[in-house]
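Quick note —
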Amino acid sequence: MEGMKRWRRNPDVHQVTDAKPSLTADIHRREVRYLVQMGIRTVCLVLAVVVPVPWPFRLLFIAGAVFLPYIAVIGANERGEPAPPPAFQDPEANQSEIPLHRREIGS
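Predicted structure written out below.
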């Protein structure tokens, strides 16, 4: 019983926030981001052609309509998010030691 109490004081805690998002969630995030960027590109294209604005603004809209597809495709092909920073680990903890509750008979 004493070994069990000692084990409960220092349990290994695993955080679910360390897990990467699912593939479905990642694809959905990239699709939404792509569609928003393509919507902005469409608005830029319409503004450049239809709305009578001075040339500096028209050039800005044309640049948005030309360069946004490239940026959107690069972003859509980007897979995953950066890995989370490693969690702090106590340097004094002995990771190679088998916990008392996992020891087999004869060890």
